[in-house]
């Protein structure tokens, strides 16, 4: 039973990594850029919900605060692209990477100054509640994390494969100029996908904060989520989830059965092996571009 509890806890953590990795993949599929502030978006979304929900702040009902927080982060992502990144249209991806790293530092400072640098928990109506299945005791928060992650993965997979907007996003990622000449509003598409990424980050942050305390440094979880996206294969939504689950499972198992400290390096050791033997990730997607 202890082993199964480790697996379940690892799956829940892995789903959070997978949700953050989904944000990486969403932006990469649409713009071929990597947002290294995605983990900080997640942390900011959690603090926004804390600000709406917790009694020492606004004290709104949790089920009202959740959609409000998601909308706020969607607007934040949209405006971040519209107000800053849009002016870098056509610039190298290296410039965007540097900009997002700097933005991560700004978000962490803002969150600490606005809310707190101390660990803070989100007040939820299901805090401390459990679901019993045989000899297993599952926290309601863990069950929600797994369920919401599975639903979002399916929704975004269908979005990119079945809708005109999703296909337009992929076309814009292949060749921005050609997509523009074909009538696709590339700048608007980019802003939309950044808004979607902000909303996904808010969901991940809310789920993570309902499971444990967060502080501004929680945004550094984005590094593990980046590894998850790379393991699964950039551009693959199921791969992002799988990569997150792999890291989430490896960490508690390595901590329990491995030597001290091995759990901290195990995810990156797996990433290194993947990059050596399958550089495109588990769900490698090789796309050709016409010039």
From TrEMBL:
- What topology does it adopt in the membrane? Multi-pass membrane protein
Q: Subcellular location, in the record's words?
A: Cell membrane
Instruction: State which residue ranges cross the membrane.
Output: 6-28, 40-57, 63-84, 96-116, 136-160, 192-214, 226-250, 262-283
Superkingdom per UniProt: Bacteria
Keyword Metal-binding in annotation:
no
Keyword Protein transport among UniProt keywords: no
One Pfam short name: BPD_transp_2
- State the UniProt keywords alphabetically: Amino-acid transport, Cell membrane, Membrane, Transmembrane, Transmembrane helix, Transport
Q: Which InterPro entries match?
A: ABC_transp_permease, BCAA_transport_permease
CDD domains given in the database record = TM_PBP1_LivH_like
Q: Which family does it belong to?
A: Belongs to the binding-protein-dependent transport system permease family. LivHM subfamily.
Q: What is this protein called?
A: Branched-chain amino acid ABC transporter permease
- The species this protein belongs to is Tateyamaria armeniaca
